[in-house]
Amino acid sequence: MTPTLVRNQPYADVSAPADAGTRARDWAEIQERMLAPLHGAVYDRLEVGAATRMLALGCGSGLAMLVAAARGAQVTGVDSDRERLALARARLLPGADWDDAHARHPAGGRARLLEDGRPAPAGADGAPYNLITVFEPIGCAAGDSEGLVPALRSAVPLAVRGASVVLSGWGPPERCATADVLRVAARLTDSAPPTRTEPGRWRPTLRDDLEDVAARAGLRPDGSGRVSCPFGYADVGSAVRGLLSTGLFDAAVRATDRSQVEKEVAEALHPHRRPDGTVWMPNVFRYLICVT
Question: Is 90 exceeded by the pLDDT of residue 225?
């Protein structure tokens, strides 16, 4: 077994603001909820409940785990972002201090979180996992799946034979209004001198991105689906903060500077503003269910 279950993202967090906690909060409070319809659709289809022992790879600040735990599942999460992981602990673990009292500790003793670099043992009750999830979208940045294949290969031996593995990604660019805004990242990254370009630049999703990862990880596809995940924000400022918290603009920030990226992202959002100042962008996300 390799020493970590978390995919290595060498391009992540390099351009984060001085207060990395602010970036993580932006993700947890603004952006992470945009994928809630995806989590719900997957959990409904797989009947996630008290019999589920879930391993969440790239668990972020724990929203998907929180929902699964509320359904009675035992959940284990791993992530390489310490700030996001700290927020996940606050949401999921007893004694934590989370801002939203209604979201406090619904997981009880059914949740656990592991830092990057540690191999994840079996489920919290000593039994192997029967569900592995990757809700961080695949196929939206160059090289974003490179570390995922070895992470999946490490996770599979910790699961029962025939366990479900869920991969997720953006839908076709023509079905995702946010793709027009994300193209700003690619344009600004390409404007840099060749010596400054790095992995992590945004690229349009390809039709077989998820199937390619599954094949390289030795997984057998066993179904798929598409889910509407509109991105809605209170105003343009919130939208800029939420989108930059994803990491998809990190390469653009390195190629130019943060203020330039913020300015151009705000301009790209104007076609999606409503008369009341809110921002609304319909999107479609895709998931692939595989079996071990």
Answer: yes
